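Lay summary. Proteins are chains of building blocks that fold into shapes, and those shapes determine what they do. In this project we predict the shape from the chain. Here is one chain we studied, written as its sequence of building blocks.
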Amino acid sequence: MKVDSMAERTATVRSSVGLHARPAAIFTRAAEDAGIPVRISKRGAAPQDAASILGVMTLGVNFGDEVILQADGPGAEAVLDSLVDLLGQDLDAP
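And here is the predicted shape, written in a compact code that computers can read:
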């Protein structure tokens, strides 16, 4: 019997403004382009659809905050690795 487990990663947000405005738009676009459902949460907060800019912004993620990413589906591990790399960059830099 196969037990499915959701892939999960923890990432530290390095955008100077956190996941607000431009960085949130870049992140949600990448999550949507992944082609599989991705969830994002902060400790103690309900997971949100990572492709939803409103959902991501309601988390109130600031610079240096840790977020938890979860995905399930084909290529989930690689998708999460690329999103972790993205969050590790300052997406608000000119």
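What the prediction tells us: Residues 34 and 79 are 6 Å apart (CA to CA).
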